[in-house]
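Check the record.
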Amino acid sequence: MDELSRLFQILANRADLVRGHSFDNGYDGGSYYNFTFETDRPSELWLLIQQLVFQAPDHEEKMAGAAMAMCSGDQGWNDYVQLYHWDPNVPVFLGSAL
């Protein structure tokens, strides 16, 4: 997780793309990690997250087995789309349409 945290921090440092961020973790029947970003350019940020993390050879397999990614709007969970899910049966929204 240290390497994934480092990669997400690189993205968080992109002042041209990220307005704010928060990272947290905990345990709820298993370890979890949340990487939350605020942006006015969600499709660009999602593309970079995919390239740097989800599709990277060093992380792709781990992410495929456990990760989820969502994008929410101003109304939070009342206004979100699923971008990635470890379960291939869960429908996902094409990030290019954000």
Q: What stands out?
A: The mean pLDDT is 86.
